[in-house]
């Protein structure tokens, strides 16, 4: 589904991502882990058109997308969440999710302004799809609540719902469990499995290594902008370079226990 060859991103003299190549198969849950500043979010920003790579190619379903505008990449079927929650906090939960359908609607500006039948019909369809996604993520019944009034964990769920409502083929999640307790983290894991079961491929960035090991089919490890490993979880956890750069010998046993659960 996704093939990246030798992409790099430089900001002046700083090399944020350096010659990274990897491939993601359709239907996978693929994890990206690594220390802060390793280049993971920069990598996501290149996949979604926010940054243009200085070098390399990004091919999504046989089409090169490096340097393509973000809205066009979204229309191709790639959607994402962000490391920092970006909700319209003074708008309702339902309205926040409906925003995610903007790129897939067809009604023109004047039809909407004049309240023509086609605009009203499409708005009702968008509301219906948004309610279905809210039910999927566990927020049914909270449609009319202000997004800013929800708990931190539920705000994360709204973000995921907004990314899902356009029915993406590939969903990128940037630290989806940041700030969550153990129960909330496990619930998000179950949600991601459900999303994959519904036909969406998932790539996620996460610092909770044990949780990632138990969830993902494959994992890539970044360090100082470079990919130092790319393999199945049980091989990643045993990789000496990964242990030295990120996990630490004293934490490896603890990670294995978490992943087993």
UniProtKB/TrEMBL annotation:
Keywords annotated in UniProt: ATP-binding, Nucleotide-binding, Transport
Key word Lyase present: no
Top-level taxon in the UniProt lineage: Bacteria
Pfam families found in the cross-reference section: ABC_tran, BCA_ABC_TP_C
UniProt-listed GO biological process terms: D-alanine transmembrane transport; L-alanine transport; L-isoleucine import across plasma membrane; L-valine import across plasma membrane
Entry-linked InterPro entries: AAA+_ATPase (IPR003593), ABC_AA/LPS_Transport (IPR051120), ABC_transporter-like_ATP-bd (IPR003439), ABC_transporter-like_CS (IPR017871), BCA_ABC_TP_C (IPR032823), P-loop_NTPase (IPR027417)
UniProt protein name: Amino acid ABC transporter ATP-binding protein
Organism: Neobacillus vireti LMG 21834
Lineage of producing organism: Bacteria, Bacillati, Bacillota, Bacilli, Bacillales
